[in-house]
Amino acid sequence: MLTASQRDHIDIVLVSPRNPLNIGAVARAMANFGFEHLSVVAAYQPHWREARSAVGAPDLLQSAREAATLAEAVADSTLVIGTGTLTHRKPEQPVVSLPALAPLLAQELARGGRIALIFGPEKHGLTREDLSWCHTFVQIPTDPRQPSMNLGQAAAVCLYEIAARALNAAQPAPGPNRNPPGLDDNAPAAPSGDLDILAGLICDVMAAANYSPRTMQTANRHAIRLMLRRLRLNSADQRRLLGLFRRILWSFRRSPIRDITK
Amino acid sequence: MLTASQRDHIDIVLVSPRNPLNIGAVARAMANFGFEHLSVVAAYQPHWREARSAVGAPDLLQSAREAATLAEAVADSTLVIGTGTLTHRKPEQPVVSLPALAPLLAQELARGGRIALIFGPEKHGLTREDLSWCHTFVQIPTDPRQPSMNLGQAAAVCLYEIAARALNAAQPAPGPNRNPPGLDDNAPAAPSGDLDILAGLICDVMAAANYSPRTMQTANRHAIRLMLRRLRLNSADQRRLLGLFRRILWSFRRSPIRDITK
């Protein structure tokens, strides 16, 4: 089992949950397996209030954090993990099967990281946009004939797996092929919010450099967000690149590049 | 993952479930992890009908078996496993933690056995009487501060564990301490119903022999039921003992023992 201190470094994040019963079920599974930190993104207020005031609702619902965006909810996290099945999506980040997740979490906890586990809305799960904040996608290995799980049950299965196995895997053997690419250095990764600051600055530089037409800016932002997570920058990397791009942006603003497309 | 043939040898049994939503949730978790055989013991008919007729109910609810008693539901099973937490009970049979269950199941499947996984009613779980039909008790490792799980979530966690891990453990290393006592021979175990026939006969012999006062008969029946499961009799053992006790009973009836207590 995880220690209390390890569990304290794991956040469960629900993106736009709709059904109060499902919110309650996730909270109950968290209490069953000893997790305490719940965040809810863009909650539908009537249902969120109903879930919190339900008879027998676990205490952790009272102390749950509310966030307007997923970016805000995971700003402090160094490893953000999206959950779901692979039926209707092909994630743009490394995919790990749930039974193989433990070594990854154990390693992140061992180097002092903070983990966020993200569950999408009941109807369609996490969107491609939501997933662009995730370092890894964890796949629950369901039957192809009935792949889609109920939210409360999916949370129970994931939290059971993490609570029961992540500590046993706390000392993974070093060597190749143990971890997804780029995830085996020992410096703490930069938190998600710091990556967002860097990504925003890079986008400003792209715009200032007339790197691509305005219509491409959304796609560029998406690609940069994913790339920065794939690279697993540590905080020193992030500060160095931030300094470099600030300098570039400052230079551009002193002597703007003429937009030859206009 | 388990193969289809392995899943075909696993029955999920619900004892007196009350909430139609929970019945539906168990059926959905079964479909998610590829299990097809559901039995319901002493169903409360209005709620059972409601669960079966719910919109989107998995097909396996239509083909579910109904049984009046747990003994009847598990009559064909060679390994009967009760589920729950250990908060308010101290089982009289070996206890296995859910993350350690896979080798036991893999071994039973490898020797051609039939497994039943039993879930109790929502309110109080399996009774001591229910558990007397179980060879093993599987404990879901929950937090002591909030040990009791929702039925649908408990089923999801157990079925995930079995589907994801039992096959990987199909070849357990031989040797001591790998399995609970008495579970490491290779002959198929006698089915539960055959053990019940033997247990009934032994109780008849006890009565005919004036082994104990009438007030002890219920306790004796309970103890014998447990003992026969702990011994893991195979079918040849069961037939041999059945023959022996039939002969003893026949002898008693030819020349009855005088009841010296009367």
Which helices and strands occur, and which strands form pairs?
The structure is a homodimer.
Chain A: H1 4-7, E1 10-15, H2 20-32, E2 37-41, H3 45-52, E3 65-67, H4 70-73, E4 79-84, E5 95-97, H5 102-110, E6 115-119, H6 128-131, E7 136-139, H7 151-165, H8 192-208, H9 217-230, H10 235-254
Parallel strand pairs in A: 1-2, 1-6, 2-3, 4-6, 4-7, 5-7
Helix pairs in contact in A: 2-3, 2-7, 8-9, 8-10
CATH topology of the largest domain in chain A: Alpha/beta knot
Largest pleated sheet of chain A: 7 strands, parallel
Give the CATH class of the largest domain in chain A: Alpha Beta
Radius of gyration of chain A: 20 Å
How many β-strands of chain A, per DSSP? 7
The biggest chain-chain interface is:
A-B, 32 and 32 residues
Q: In whole angstroms, how far apart are the ends of chain A?
A: 62 Å
Structural class of chain A: alpha/beta
Instruction: Work out the count of structural domains of chain A.
Output: 2
- Full CATH superfamily name of the largest domain in chain A: SPOUT methyltransferase, trefoil knot domain
N-to-C series of helices and strands of chain A: HEHEHEHEEHEHEHHHH
Number of helices of chain A: 10
Strand order of the largest sheet of chain A: 3-2-1-6-4-7-5
The helix fraction of chain A, in percent, is 40-55%
Would you tell me the overall average pLDDT of chain A?
A: 86
User: Quaternary status of these chains?
Assistant: homodimer
